[in-house]
Design the sequence.
């Protein structure tokens, strides 16, 4: 695959044989941007789980303490007072049958979906459209709830959702490259703590097998998977090696 000159220059700054501390990785992510816009800083984890087995699926949500750097577009399936509650909380799209028809017609201009329990019978018809995109409401992630106002507020305030793919990889964002180093480290620590907390009892051997940071369209930065505690303050003050 032919890479751009900007990508190649960025990749030359990274020693792919080295495992960087989280703080060093954040510094490198900020220094290896290849886009003209403010890129997102992303984290990819390889977990020691078999997601084909239901008891080893890792799925959850976390509120990033410093937000994501973008305001998510939230669609809510609700009617009556709950629809009004969703609108008051800042939902971008609120409705029921009308929204189902729009989505069936190809409308997908949103980042998260919330639904009240009474409408899930109808929303279930959208499983083939929303499911593969990770947008299907689910009570385990707080997106099927009667308290739609809180759900909308949480998502717009920096709540992210993560789920292992069929290969045992897990992906989430920790903010924008323009965030300061400490803010990105705090977001990473919050997300990592939740992933570790959700370790399946059935998972055997090493749980965190590989950690990689990257920015949008940028090269991957290998991170030490053993650095899971106490790195926020130390690494925030230390320069990258």
Sequence:
């Amino acid at each position: 695959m032919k890479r751009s000159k900007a990508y190649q220059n960025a990749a030359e700054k990274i020693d792919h044989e080295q495992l960087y501390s989280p703080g060093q990785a954040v510094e490198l992510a900020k220094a290896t941007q290849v886009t003209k816009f403010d890129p997102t800083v992303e984290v990819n984890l390889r977990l020691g789980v078999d997601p084909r087995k239901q008891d080893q699926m890792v799925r959850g949500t976390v509120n990033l303490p410093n937000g994501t750097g973008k305001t998510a577009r939230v669609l809510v399936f609700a009617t009556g007072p709950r629809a009004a509650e969703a609108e008051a909380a800042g939902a971008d799209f609120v409705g029921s049958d009308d929204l189902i028809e729009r989505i069936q017609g190809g409308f997908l201009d949103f980042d998260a979906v919330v639904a009240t329990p009474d409408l899930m019978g109808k929303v279930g018809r959208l499983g083939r459209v929303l499911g593969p995109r990770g947008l299907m409401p689910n009570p385990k992630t707080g997106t099927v709830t009667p308290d739609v106002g809180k759900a909308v507020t949480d998502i717009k305030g920096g709540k992210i959702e993560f789920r292992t793919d069929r290969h045992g990889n897990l992906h989430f964002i920790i903010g924008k490259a323009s965030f300061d180093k400490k803010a990105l480290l705090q977001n990473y620590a919050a997300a990592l703590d939740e992933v570790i907390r959700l370790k399946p009892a059935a998972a055997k051997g090493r749980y965190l097998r590989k950690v990689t940071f990257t920015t949008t369209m940028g090269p991957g930065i290998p991170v030490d998977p053993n650095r899971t505690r106490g790195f926020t303050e130390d690494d925030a003050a230390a320069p990258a090696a």
Notes: The longest strand covers residues 40-47.
